[in-house]
Amino acid sequence: MPRSKVKLAFIKDNKERKNSFMKRKEWLKNKLKEVSILCSIEACVIMYSSYEPELEVCPEDNTAFQNVLNAFLTKSPMERRKFLLNQDSYIKERNNKIK
Questions:
Q1: I want to staple 68 with a disulfide (CB 3.0 to 4.6 A). Which of 25, 29, 44, 59 is the partner?
Q2: Where is pLDDT greater, at 10 or 7?
């Protein structure tokens, strides 16, 4: 049976919002691991939230994270720019490609 579509909206209840974040964070970690294995790539995620005092890096294996970070930092500033998108610039770039 298919899941119902999730309505994306701000969760007002703080406890419910924190629980949702924790579940989605675990889902994201699992997907990162799956993509890394299936595509034979090194990938990492850096997460920060107001619910936890420190940054969380996934995967926890420090060498994998360092490999990804070093691969990014060895690129020229022009090449790095291709990988640095926030939501606004991504939408603008996508809209420009569609036109």
A1: 44
A2: 10
